[in-house]
Predict the structure.
Amino acid sequence: AASPKKGPDKKAAGGASAGPAKSSLAAKSPEAVCGIDPKRMSKEEIRKRLAELFRRHNSAEASLNPELREEASVMLDAIVVCRQKYVDKA
């Protein structure tokens, strides 16, 4: 059996009230959301960009503003995907 993943179920709960900002971010690839180009950026440049984005969005995830919180959640998910794909790979 496959292990459960954080998937659309978590984000579906906020669906209709999230607004256009979430859908425009969620529709982009993790690389586009994070503003990285693996063809033009070195591993170190990608790592620095992801660290900068993490610092910016990590505290926003605890915000009382639900839209800001949702945007931060989408960004943090994209950061994790990019970090695993481009920085932490063996």
Q: What stands out?
A: The chain has one domain: 20-87.
